[in-house]
Amino acid sequence: MDSSLALKVTSDLFWTGLLVCLPVLGLTLLVGVAVSILQVITQVQEASLSFVPKLVTAGIAVLAFGPWMLRTLCGFTVQLWARIPGMF
Description:
Layout: H1 3-42, H2 47-87
Membrane topology: Multi-pass membrane protein
Subcellular location: Cell membrane
Keywords: Cell membrane, Cell projection, Cilium, Flagellum, Membrane, Transmembrane, Transmembrane helix
């Protein structure tokens, strides 16, 4: 295995990881910002008020995007295993 192949595999790994995590992290970020704005407006600084909606949003996002995330990770794994004979 030469260095360019190792860099390509590492690059694909990070892009796949980013792509899989993006829906959950993006929705959680949006809900967190919305709750923070609501807390600033109402001046209610309760920690659980921020935590619970983000946790529920992350759970719903995993349920909604879970099949797609699994297909993406399985596709990456199959592609990685298919590259193994050409590495040596």
